[in-house]
């Protein structure tokens, strides 16, 4: 609890404050704050105030730096006595009087250096004392006012750093529309400032984290969406950004601009040394700004480069010898991480098509392709960290974060969108056309409509480059997860034989099988991504199944493959779905003899075994975005059975399984509830239904019809689940779908 202003200074009479200061080891901070407060009145000499603030700043900055360099998890408030004393005696309030209009000081007379030091003092307090950050975050007027300070280049970094810290703890996301003249502010930024501003924007356009997405049930999410049907604040902020003229174009330029290539022999170690104490991109900027100011005083060189400057002017400057080359590279990498994150979030938003059109127009993909070998994947970077979700905080090194963000962007860009062909170059597009012609099938419309002027340049497109580095990755590297997701997104949607053959010709199937069977990979995330990719690569493609049989050429290999599939059906069920769908499409005895995988799935007892387990591992309360695919795979098996008039046989088999396991009604009651949820979930979501139809080549009307038949109330119907549950075990009326 803070001491009142009167209490803070009233006890100074009689030397009590000085005496207490010595015993408590306050380092004269209360006395300095009193002098600073007295200097904040109108007509005071602000040079005196600035001198007091500088002394106070030196006390706080040492503690803030120790917080940045030490393990934050073990840091306690008692570790930062100077910051605690500064806050206790009203240091935050008195500092604000030099910043905010309509306080005691005539702000127009406050010089930039004083404002800069006030901001630094506040930031140092926020670093060490969370209560200060939360207090400032609760003042909406102050938060919006801070954005107006960003117009001044001299105070930009300090302002941006403080805003980022405050927004990180703010309970409610700010409205970007509320920032005075936001469009003019953003347009006034140079490219360096805009990159740093992206770090702030990322907090304002991402949906708030409420835990791991995969562990949030669909039941809870659906209930939340029902309560909040209007666009979220993050979605509104995304629209606000897209309406700023030139915003996306400038981000594309930032994402694709080049940096100097020269690095020292021990670059990786040097980079890690920098990263151990550089808290974030803004801290790094501050360090570079200090070096710039020092150079300016000596009339050496200014780092304030115009947008047209390239890396050569920086590399040849005298200042270059003061800053390690690796530092300049990591500087650019950290910028690009923030820019790619913002672009990725916008790509996944409601304005996806608008963003896609702009990214294509401003040649983001060809630009990234040109950077791939020289910057993005110029060297191997070890990565065995835990796979993070899209909005999760990541403590990875800059290089690892950069690679992951790049792969996330590719995944979002390719997923169910015709612009995916921009990841290829002209020769590769011609190859796709030739594959279609040889197979005597029409080219897909998206390929025909691709603007050749917007595709990748050079000998290889971005997708081909990605495949090359994917094959060199160690088995358990978490990069494999994101690489597989990016390649899979290229295949997702309506199945394209030409797309599959393009990847098969580059040895992708053999590489995936090696990773699953022979590499010793144990990462469930990586294995799941490879199962999903394998499913998309093989679906409806007889050539792929023949290649599978050629690689899996011994009973031992096939057993290992099945063991991997059966070890976690949540991870492998998309591949199971692919095999079942392909088997139904081929329907030829000679085909079954050519592939052990198809002949295995052709045996009805094996399909039933998968069906039992798929239904048994999920229920309405535990359904998530991660495991709902198990429900859809079980439905695919039953839809195909229904087409052949074998649905009663499968339902009766489920009933017999219940009695064998001595749990009559358990499996079928659970499945009935799951299908009721399915109706509520999918019949109101156009995108999900489109995905189901495209991925299965089964009209969504047939999905709906099959579910309705299975849920039919007529106990005389041989296709209704209710007919197979004996009356004493009937539990269909209980509504488990309400939250």
UniProtKB/TrEMBL annotation:
InterPro entries: TRPC4AP (IPR022162). GO terms for biological process: ubiquitin-dependent protein catabolic process. GO terms for cellular component: Cul4A-RING E3 ubiquitin ligase complex. GO terms for molecular function: phosphatase binding. Pfam families: DUF3689. This is Transient receptor potential cation channel, subfamily C, member 4 associated protein a. It comes from Scophthalmus maximus.
